Amino acid sequence: MNDLRAVADSLHPHEAKVLAALDAPGEPLISNEDALAKSSGLEPDQVRAALGRLQAKELVGVLSQTTDHIVSLTETGERYVRDGNPFARVLSALAEARDTHSSLTIKDLQSREGLAPGDMSGIVGELKRERAIAIVTGGIVELTGTPSRTAESLQTLLGEIRNGYKPFTEFSPADQALIEKFSQKRGNPNEPFRIDERVTARVYRVTDAGKAVASQVRSGGTKKEAARLTPEMLKDGSWRKVSFRKYAIGLKPSRIGVGKKHPYREFLDLVKAKFVGMGFEEMRGPLVENEFWDMDALYMPQFHPARDIHDVYFVKEPTHSPPIKEPFLKQVRQVHERGWKTGSSGWRYPFDPMRTRRLVLRSQGTAVSARTLAGGPKAPGKYFSIARCFRYDQVDATHAPDFYQIEGIVLGQDINFRTLLGLLTLFAREIAQAQEMRFLPAYFPFTEPSVELHVRHPRLGWMELGGAGLFRPEVTQPLGVDVPVIAWGLGLDRMAMVALEIHDIRDLFSADLDMIRSKRVQY
């Protein structure tokens, strides 16, 4: 009995009122928040706070709850409200072109409306399916006169939700299908709608312990309590006549989020530790690199379309590096022009020594390997680098303009292609934690034979991790190496997506604290 009295005395006045209302004589031992607010005379927020504390003390439990799906707008949706959805904008642009007797291609529309290629493809495909547009001779896009339900209904729905949210069930089946189609999903966040599950009603019950405490509350009555001692109470002596609220010092304090490494930072550190543990030495190189080490030393000719694949970022100032050290410039130049002493015939073009000094942001980690080969590496020897690289690319779930590569080389007289495949298999399983992997033949100017490593992401499917192969003599001999060298450059960001079970590459750099606290590298 004393314990029950102590628990009753420790209750906050709001808790006592809610518990008394729930256990009112002659009333069922269940109620919802709206009914409790009326019967207890408290505000709804006060009732919710009191119920939370009573549940923590196991005096009240949830008997049942009702959930509903709520539709709201994302930042993309708010932009569509302001500027118009892309379907309507494309149709409006085509109508304007028709009225001015001009014509627009898909590329014109994409440039005019500032749409990504992937988004433009989806918009054109949907409008063609609805027969609202047609593509005629010359790739010209024209209106057919048939209205687009997607463009019209999408804008209507955006207007309905613009000032808040709305239950999903209040929409017609056709509108529900449209909302689901254009709702935000993992891996496709740039959609106008978001569908969230929310609890709309709860029914509460008093536990057996709660009934006993409620009886004590009724017998002792609810009295006004002071939460703190004030200077005024001390001056006028009123503190002697006031009942102060009791504090339960045994309650757990509120949770404080402690600092921890970002999960991707933790992943990178673990990758480095694994390579060092396997006996690899770390290579380092500059982020701002010249074309010589980034491309020329790797036997990529200055006219070759392989350079276009990299889509490098050029440095505005300074534009060029100091002269390349000899004998590397001379020997690489001779390899490009005539093959030098490698047994190759070279690329047969006039090599431009000035272009080699053009500064770029490093587009591939192989530039670090090239510098290491020129620096007199040990043979046999094995080296690795976690290299930040930069290439112009459209951002999506698996692409970013800057990314990390795990770059590596192994030198030795007995090194061969089988050694390379064994290492790649080890990396896929131990670092990416991939369950399925496969090798595909590939082409790179600096390796022969060459291979690509692919792994299966649990949601995104097969994903390329990067390329590898045996360095050609045209790469190794001009840099002073005369033993076989295997090399690889794998995308660490994509490996982390598999290992961390992340479905969008942008989440690797997220500031979402819940994600950062919950993700762990599992090894």
Helix and strand topology:
Blueprint: H1 2-10, H2 13-22, E1 30-32, H3 33-40, H4 44-56, E2 60-73, H5 75-83, H6 86-99, E3 104-105, H7 106-113, H8 117-129, E4 133-136, E5 140-143, H9 149-161, E6 165-167, H10 173-181, E7 193-206, H11 208-220, E8 225-226, H12 231-236, E9 243-244, H13 263-277, E10 281-282, E11 288-290, H14 291-294, H15 306-310, H16 328-338, E12 359-361, H17 366-374, E13 381-390, E14 402-411, H18 417-430, E15 437-441, E16 447-457, E17 461-471, H19 473-476, E18 485-491, H20 492-499, H21 513-518
Parallel strand pairs: 8-9, 10-13
Antiparallel strand pairs: 1-7, 2-6, 2-7, 3-5, 4-5, 11-12, 13-14, 14-18, 15-16, 16-17, 17-18
Using the coordinates above, name the CATH class of the largest domain.
Alpha Beta
Oligomeric state of the chains in view: single chain
What would you report as the Rg, rounded to the nearest angstrom? Answer: 34 Å
Number of H- or I-type helical stretches: 21
**Sequence stretches where pLDDT stays below 50 over 5 or more residues:** none
Percent helix range: 25-40%
CATH topology of the largest domain: BirA Bifunctional Protein, domain 2
Mean pLDDT: 86
Span between N and C termini?
Answer: 52 Å
